[in-house]
Amino acid sequence: METIYYTREANAVLSTLIEAGHEMELNMLLEKANVNFLIAPTVLFGLLRGREIVYRMENGVQYFRVNEDYHLPKPEAADYRPRDVEIYLCFRQAVKQYVREHYTVNDYAAILCITPKYLTSVVKRVSGQTALKLIEQETIDEIKSTLLHTQMTAKEISAQFHFPTLSFSVVSSNGLQA
Question: Does the pTM of the predicted model rise above 0.70?
Fold first, then answer.
């Protein structure tokens, strides 16, 4: 599976959709996010492939919104700063990129060049969930996707996700502690 890298433009599109809190027409979205129309297909394809956004077309007009399954910042929470959303989006990007490596909150904090305590507080403020919970959920989602879209055996998937034993991956994918 190909790793998805988010650019400044992709983060701007996500931030715009999160702040809007509703579906947006393509032209308005690109204008508000300040994304060049020529690179829009690449940016939007990456976000669609990563399941962060959802697309629909009606009467020839393209609409985009944030996927309900995406762990959204709470729109009513006014206690976070715009920088918090940027850190949160970078954290989500890093989790998607390194989901198979079993990184800890400390590892992701190091990647983002911030302290683990600060990362944890930002993620909790923005999403209402802990950083660890988001890491675990992304791992479970990736395992489910791999099971659905490949013919790999549980043993092969366990090896691909670098689980120490097959039983660890089965227990972990059920959301239980090993």
Answer: no
